Amino acid sequence: MSSDSDTQNKPKDTEKSANDTADRTEHSPPHQPTPVKASSSTDTGAGTTDEIAEPLLVERPTPDEPTANKPVLVDADSRVAFDAATISLDITQVAADLSEPGTVEAQNTPFKPHEVLAPPPPEDIAEDSDTDTADTGTADTDTSNTGTEKDKITRAIKNFINGEGDDTQSATTKQSSAARQFHDRRDVIKALTTLQTTHKPRYIPGETQIRTDDFKHALLNSMAKMGNTNLSKSLNAIDGRTIDFVEMLFGAFLRDDNISVALKSLLLELQIPLIKVAMLDQMFFQNINHPARNMLDTIAHLGIGIEDSENTLFKTMQLIVDQLQTTFEQNLNSFNTSLTALNRLTAIEKDKTGQQEEVTQKAIFKEHARQIVLNELQRHTYKKIIQKDLKPLILKQWSALMFQRFIKYGKESSQWNEIVTLLKHIIYSVQPITSSEQWVLLSNDSDILISDVSAQLNTTRLSPGSIDASLTALREIHARLLETSEFFQETPDYRLAEKSLDEMMLESEEEIPDTGDPPHIQISRLPRNVKQGVWFEIYNGEDKALRRVKLSVILFDEAKLIFVDRHGNKVIEKLADEFVEELNKEQSKIIADHSIFNHALGQVINSIIR
């Protein structure tokens, strides 16, 4: 989104005001392109190192250069294309976004083997979308009439900045007649530019309000030191209220629990640039595509997994913010340059972390496959006799075959069911014979079973010698059981085999005692917004800090959730029932990946129209 389109869409009176301001302002000498060099440092949280070798910013238009036909460029060697994506919601939804956390959108990961990973169902997404725009119950936030709501928001902002109701005109007239009592806006913007690089507020945990009076006092002192005026002058009402409105937005940022402590400090450094934007661009708050608000949203989205400031990603974003503070005077295209840098950084991070998360998911899936095979072996050998000679076949060779089939085909496949059925036949065939019917079945099926087992084992990379040894052991066990049985028959009477092998196996099976609800029941208790790609603050035990992690894998067969950090590395796993309890107790919570600007603007609008 370029500033060219924004400039063309401004009303004529806005353009005139901007031109007048530009004529009265002394432009600084042209700046040279300033690259942002990302330092290489170790992220103490994850124990990994981020490196960004290429410069993020290579060209920035100077204040004297026209922005028309002057695109913001990245270095020619870059192979990453960028779109200045708008993270904001529509302005008509702003009023409905009060204190609610907002929309949480799942970020789907590319690796989805079989049913183990949990992609969000399409019907759930559709229903969630309806919920996201639901009426919050506030009379002033009914979004049924789009045009009416947009007008209401515009009027609310205008009335607040210019003065309430019908008193707007009289207040403006009064200021004009006594203009010498107030600072000229040109001087205010110059003083703000001076403060921009020196005013470095830091967020204090628990802080919920911006100390606006302290900031205004610092601004007036700065103007006095510049020698442009005397201490008896003050800010005019419109400039003062513009500052108040922007500070109210930043106060809402401080109260947004979805933003980490580290990011709140970084966002606070953009207070003065945002105040200047609001003074220079009358339609800033109404323009959903404005690069300044998109910059705020991009910082929040990119840093959603950041837990502290001691990592390369945060430091790189800090460099981008520092450069904006250094270069931004009155040319709003500086925000386009910073937004382009952030978008490029987002693409780099997404590519790097996406690859690592895919590696992590594959490792998780392999471990899950081993657990599935172990569970099947335990289930079918429960209270069964397994001869010592047969253990290599069942515990090594057949388990390896089961692992291979699960990885390649999944648990619902016919290939998996085939070898599980053969496993049950093998185990049943080596149990003590307790009836003539069982003796006849074994006598009749032994050679067929051994042939089927041989065919399956020969599809693996197991050594032929080990396969032959296992088949020989199985054949000898069958012969010994038949010859030593009290139900031995010289001439087998096949009329006794009235039941099938499967029916007889079913009768002999003993179920493992239940230890709780089945996995699918436990999974069904999870809230609908617990999906792959959603970020959470996770309870990590007593006296331990919460961790910001992303849900990467849902294991349905084990009712288990696997979470990764912003690098894509596995951090923690939770059983479904355990996680539901933590959510209910508010020990863990969802992090809403929403537009922080719209969320804050919705709160401010509703606070001033009530």
From TrEMBL:
Positions of the UniProt region annotated as Disordered: 1-75, 104-153, 161-180
InterPro entries: DUF1631 (IPR012434)
Biased composition regions of type Polar residues, renumbered to the chain: 168-179
Biased composition range(s): Low complexity: 38-50, 134-147
Segments of skewed composition (Acidic residues): 124-133
Bias (Basic and acidic residues): 7-29
Xref: Pfam families: DUF1631
Protein name: Thymidine phosphorylase
Source organism per UniProt: hydrothermal vent metagenome
